[in-house]
């Protein structure tokens, strides 16, 4: 077998190739770490005062930010308050309170998903119910808290 | 007079000695472009390049005033439109030209597909062309958020959520794109950076490769097509014809940019409900409509995940067309692929129409 022994140039070429590959790993990893979202320094709140009871009329809703998430607080026609994550479980659009069709529900304008007043997905492409939150009335204030 | 001509010749000679462009001109004037009944479709590649050049020029002009932050972006676009001299016109041209570019790119791509111009030895031209198509769509997506108006905001919320269902890379990829848990200031600066630096640089590299191959390999003649006369010289004959097409493109662009100035909806409010009738740009409507029609679950699998996987398979298949269509490579008629192209065009057209009408 006539096997040619590698020259110094071959060796240096292979060494350079291997070094480039090895160098790409830490460089790539560093860039990915740099681009990864920073961890939030905000501490999660247990509850939030949304509004005074009289501020949200019966049959209307208000959207507030609670722990960085949009939350929809609905004053149902029956005088009850209900709160859910306002982010549609399909593709993240903000839902709205709607009574079209004669029934109170939450509607997403983006792809037509609908949720009943228990947060359950009842129509459209949304795959999951809206996450519910606790609502209470304390000294005429509407308070939303984590479940 | 003689002195001026002599010194002009001296300057040309001086330049020629240092930048030997004459050999390039010689090469281009020897290059021939075939003439046949489908030659008309050749002009859409050049037209796409023309709209890309318009995008670069108007994009640079807009970047002098645009401020990429949620508290200033909308106001800076308003300023461009209302206060900066000719600002509304530059912005209108930029927005319309983006649509013209996507339109002529799609016509170019489907004409290449139906003429089977991807067959050997032009496989890499096809692959680089498909890559350019994805880059152009990425240009559209990243640029859409920049005005920070309601439509743009929710279109980006949806667009960045779509890949989330993909296993392993979905969540990670989306958070890398958004730079945060939600579409906010980090998302805007990332989109801006991608839109004005990463995409133009990538497009220039791939486009140069695509054009180089076009020069080296020439234009493909569809199988069984009878040439309608002797081929014409690329330089200057075909280039003059190309310039006529560019002029028609420019006149149409200017006319529409003046008659239908590009609008701006209300400033984005991340706590407002998505507006009624929200839709992405027309070239994303096939994906939008498919997602809309997909059921929430199919045999316990997430409907959105199924759409993502199908889109991924179709995209991979589209890249690999020159290697799958073996009949075209052997110079035979490949009716199945022609039908496939027609079905795809019909699907795109139907979903766009459905998205507008329902």
Write the layout of secondary structure elements.
The complex is a heterodimer of chains A (147) and B (358).
Chain A: H1 8-35, E1 47-52, E2 60-66, E3 69-75, E4 81-85, E5 96-98, E6 105-107, E7 114-115, E8 121-123, E9 132-138, E10 141-145
Chain B: H1 2-18, H2 22-30, E1 32-33, H3 43-63, H4 73-82, H5 87-114, H6 123-145, H7 150-161, H8 169-178, H9 185-217, E2 232-233, H10 234-259, H11 285-293, E3 297-298, E4 301-302, H12 303-324, H13 326-329, H14 335-357
Helix pairs in contact in B: 3-5, 3-10, 4-5, 5-6, 5-10, 6-7, 6-9, 6-12, 11-14
Order of helices and strands of chain A: HEEEEEEEEEE
The secondary-structure class of chain B comes to: mainly alpha
Q: How many runs of DSSP E, i.e. beta strands of chain A? A: 10
- DSSP E strands of chain B, number: 4
**Strand coverage percent of chain A:** 25-35%
Low-confidence stretches of chain B: none
The helix/strand series of chain B, from N terminus to C terminus, equals: HHEHHHHHHHEHHEEHHH
Biggest sheet features of chain B: 2 strands, antiparallel
| Cα end-to-end separation of chain B | 71 Å
- Global shape of chain B: globular
Task: Give the helix tally of chain B.
Answer: 14
Content-based structural category of chain A: alpha+beta
Structure description:
The complex is a heterodimer of chains A (147) and B (358). Chain A is α+β, with helices and mostly antiparallel strands and 147 residues long. Chain A contains one helix and ten strands; from the N terminus they run αββββββββββ. A six-stranded antiparallel sheet of chain A has the order 1-10-9-4-3-2, with no helix packed on it. The longest helix of chain A has 28 residues, at 8-35. Chain A is elongated. In chain A, 27% of the residues are buried. The mean pLDDT of chain A is 90. Chain B is mainly alpha-helical. Chain B has 14 helices and four strands. In chain B, α5 (87-114) packs antiparallel against α6 (123-145), α6 runs antiparallel to α12 and α11 (285-293) crosses α14. The longest helix of chain B has 33 residues, at 185-217. The A-B interface holds A 32, 35-37, 40, 63-65, 68, 70, 86, 90-96, 108-112, 121, 124-127 and B 154, 157-158, 160-162, 175-176, 178-182, 186, 270-278, 291-292, 294-297, 302-304.
């Amino acid at each position: 077998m006539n096997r040619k022994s590698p020259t110094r140039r071959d060796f240096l070429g292979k060494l350079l190739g291997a070094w480039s590959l090895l160098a790409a790993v830490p460089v790539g990893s560093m860039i990915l770490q740099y681009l990864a979202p920073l961890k939030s320094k905000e501490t999660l709140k247990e509850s939030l005062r949304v509004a005074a009871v009289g501020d949200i009329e019966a049959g209307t809703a208000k959207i507030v930010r609670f722990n960085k998430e949009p939350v929809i607080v609905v004053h149902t026609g029956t005088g009850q308050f209900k709160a859910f994550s306002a982010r549609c479980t399909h593709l993240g659009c903000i839902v709205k309170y709607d009574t079209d069709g004669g029934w109170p529900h939450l509607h997403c304008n983006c792809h037509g998903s609908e949720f009943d007043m228990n947060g359950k997905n009842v129509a459209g492409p949304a795959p999951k119910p809206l996450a519910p939150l606790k609502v209470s009335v304390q000294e005429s204030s509407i308070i939303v808290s984590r479940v | 007079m003689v002195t001026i001509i002599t010194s002009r010749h001296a300057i040309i000679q001086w330049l020629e000695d240092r930048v030997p462009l004459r050999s390039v001109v010689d090469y281009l004037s020897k290059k021939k472009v075939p003439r046949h009944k489908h030659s008309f479709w050749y002009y859409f590649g050049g037209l796409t390049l023309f709209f890309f050049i318009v995008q670069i020029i108007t994009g640079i002009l807009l970047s002098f005033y645009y401020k990429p932050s949620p508290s200033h972006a909308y106001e800076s676009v308003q300023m461009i439109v209302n206060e900066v001299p000719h600002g509304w016109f530059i912005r209108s041209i930029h927005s319309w030209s983006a649509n013209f570019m996507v339109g002529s790119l799609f016509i170019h791509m489907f004409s290449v597909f139906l003429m089977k111009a991807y067959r050997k030895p032009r496989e890499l031209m096809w692959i680089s062309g498909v890559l350019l198509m994805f880059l152009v769509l990425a240009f559209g997506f990243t640029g859409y958020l920049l005005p920070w108006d309601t439509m743009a905001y929710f279109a980006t919320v949806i667009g960045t959520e779509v890949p989330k269902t993909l296993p392993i890379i979905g969540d990670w990829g989306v958070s890398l794109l958004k730079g945060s848990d939600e579409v906010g200031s980090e998302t805007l600066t990332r989109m801006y950076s991608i839109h004005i630096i990463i995409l133009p640089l990538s497009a220039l590299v791939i486009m140069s490769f695509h054009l180089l191959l076009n020069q080296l390999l020439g234009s493909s003649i569809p199988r069984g097509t009878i040439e309608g006369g002797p081929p014409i010289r690329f330089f200057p004959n075909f280039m003059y014809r190309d310039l006529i097409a560019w002029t028609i493109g420019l006149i149409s662009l200017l006319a529409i940019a003046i008659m239908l100035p590009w609008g701006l909806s209300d400033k984005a409010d991340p706590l407002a409900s998505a507006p009624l009738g929200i839709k992405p740009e027309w070239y994303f409507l096939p994906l939008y409509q498919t997602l809309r029609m997909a059921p929430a679950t199919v045999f316990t699998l997430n409907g959105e995940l199924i759409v993502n996987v199908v889109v991924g398979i179709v995209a991979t298949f589209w890249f690999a067309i020159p290697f799958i269509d073996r009949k075209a490579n052997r110079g035979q008629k490949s009716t199945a692929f022609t039908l496939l192209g027609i079905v795809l065009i019909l699907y795109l057209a139907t979903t766009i129409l459905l998205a507008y009408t329902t």
